[in-house]
Input
Amino acid sequence: MILALMHACSNALRPREAEPAASVPCLAFRVSGHAFAVRMTRLKEIVRCGIIAVPRDKPGCVRGFYRHNQHLFPVIDLARRYSGHDTDIHDRSCLLIVTLDEAKDALQVGILAEEVGGLHEFDADDIKPLPDEARRLMNVDVLDGLVKASREYLMILAAERLLSRDEQHELRAYLDELSSS
Output
C-alpha cells in the first residue's frame, strides 16, 4: 500500500500540463486519529518510519532526527506538539518529508504520520475556514482550513507555518553544528 502510494505521489510531483490555478492536490494522512492533508507542492517524499534518533541536546520543537539518503531530517510529531503525547509508531507509520518554504535552501522536515490515506484534489473554494470550536481546542495557526473528502473532513496543514522562524533558526544552527563536528 505504502509503495503504491509512494509511486502515485512521485507521479503527481512530475511536471504536467498547466492545471487550473484553483486546483489543490493534497495527500491525506492520520495522526492520533485525526485526518490531515498536506499540499503536494510541499511534499518531497514519503519514507517508511525507521529508528528516530533522539539526542539529549535536541531542540524542543522536534521529536528527534531521521537519517535518509545521506540527509538528516528533523522529525515533527504533531500529536506531541499539540496534544502532549507521542504518535505511536507501527508498521504503517511513515514520515512525510516536506519543505517549509519555497526557497532553494528551504528546511525540510519529516512529519510523523500513523498512516497515509490517499491523494485528493480540491478546488481552492472547497477549503473552508476552521470553526471557532476548533480554535479553542488546539493551536490552529498551522492549519489553512478544512475540506470534505469522501466521508470525513481533512485539516489542511500549512507547512510554511509548522515551525516558527525562531524554531527554524534553532534547527538550522543545530544541523549546522552536527555537520561540522
Summary: The first strand starts at residue 23 and ends at 31. The first helix runs from residue 2 to 13. The domain at 2-13+21-180 is CATH 2.40.50.180 (OB fold (Dihydrolipoamide Acetyltransferase, E2P)). The chain has four helices and ten strands.
